Amino acid sequence: MGLPLGQTHVSLTDMSTSNTTSIRHHYKAMTRNRILDAALDLMAQGDAALTIASVAQQAGITDRTVYRHFATREALLEAVWPRMQARVASKGFPRTAQALIQTPRELFPRFDENQNLVRASVYSESGREVRLKSNTERQAAMLACVEEALPGLSGAAKRRRAAILQLIDSAYAWAVMKDFWDLDGVEAGEAAAEAIAILLGHAPPADEPPAAAEEPEATAATAAP
Predict the structure, then answer these.
(1) 3-state helix/strand/coil string of 47-100
(2) Contact indicator for 107, 121 with CB cutoff of 8 Å
(3) Is the distance from CB of 101 to CB of 200 less than 8 angstroms?
(4) What DSSP element (H or E) covers 46?
């Protein structure tokens, strides 16, 4: 007897193959994340340089397994940054002025919860390497924010504005405000957001109205007798 129209025959072999493939993909993803998490853990410990061998040892796997997922050390470093951003629940680089203003308010409190990793990303050799891998994308995002908010700026002025915005919206700014001003992540995030808003031409915060214009000094002609 033939199968009714519209029905497809699926054998037990087909089902078994499908399940096996799904399990294999799941295991592959788990191993990849295990490698990236090992790299982040090494960074948080202040490891001077991330190598395939050191990451493999930290993950409890062989070098060969790491190479199956990342053909080169460069490929590994490029993948570490997105994993680190996921750990602090980053939404990625903001590309609008409003999103940029909001970013430090959201991220800086989370930096408090991941201090060792965030500090390592700023001050360690491996952290600098990882940051540089994403710098082209970060620069493009900062320039997009400036272009949206201040389209009249010249090329050089736009680049300068984007550069200082990148600094304020970074773990560097969070670390300075925490270490030298004793601000927690919430306060530091608000301070950064206020500075970014001003640099993008937005109105100052409501609790800090713009200073009144100074009255000109009286001249001899207008001075009271």
Answers:
(1) CCCCCHHHHHHHHCCCHHHHHHHCCCHHHHHHHHHHHHHHHCCCCCCCCCHHHH
(2) no
(3) yes
(4) none
Question: What pLDDT shows up at residue 31?
Answer: 95
Q: Rounded to an integer, what distance in angstroms lies between the CA atom of residue 174 and that of residue 117?
A: 13
φ and ψ at residue 181, rounded to 5 degrees? -125, 0
pLDDT of residue 225 exceeding 50, the answer is no
Which residue has tokens 């609790």? 207
Structure tokens at 44: 């948080």
d(CA 34, CA 74): 18
Q: Tell me how far the alpha carbon of residue 68 is from its chain's centroid.
A: 27
pLDDT digit string (tens) for 41-89?
988 887 567 899 999 999 999 999 999 999 999 999 999 989 988 988 8
> Please, what's the b/e burial string for 170-190 (b: 16 or more CB within 10 A of its CB; e: otherwise)?
bbebbbebbeeeebebeebbe
Residues 3-12: tens digit of each pLDDT? 455 555 555 4
